[in-house]
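SEQUENCE-TO-STRUCTURE ENTRY
===========================
Question of interest: how does this chain fold, as expressed in backbone structure tokens?
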Amino acid sequence: MERPQMRSLIALLITLALPATSHAQDRAGDFDYYVLALSWSPTWCALEGDDRGSPQCDADADFGWVLHGLWPQYERGWPSDCRHSFRNPSRSDTAAQADLYGSSGSAWHQWNKHGSCSGLSPDDFYDLSREAYSRITRPEVFRRLTDPVTLPASLIEEAFMRDNDGLDADEITITCRSGRIQEARICLTRDLELRHCGSDVIRDCSLDDALFDPVR
């Protein structure tokens, strides 16, 4: 193959390999579905929060599954940091969400990165996020642990499916980080109904011995 043709082929292959998000990225309100990401707070605290001195990790905080975020999602890829015409949330606005997100700082970050792409005002986005969080039952069994355990990541998924009628394995994924259970991510329609996750979301952790710390 002649060199100019080879360069053209390489350029085409690179273009095809890029994430399919660039066509609509940064357009608020233009997305396909939501991912509700529930973070196991003891894991985040052990890996990041303790070093940051986050109030989410205080001994009396009592956080288990906190809302990492309600993320607008494309069928493949996602938008972030979208332009919008709304007033950004105030400190009092984000402080009012600390019980949901673990801290006001997390609530602020989630609005900027993800909420800005929802097409909703901060107040409406936080209200929708709280509604989505309330629709999913977080298995109470995990709050009863008193000591760290190792377990299969699939056990976390099974517990969520057992406690949430209609939730199946194609609608939830469990992620791990540094050998620990990190998050449960559940896919929802724009009307907050359960739906199948896209292929770039449904990537389950396959660990059989993931560390799971108890609520502090």
Summary: The first helix runs from residue 3 to 17.
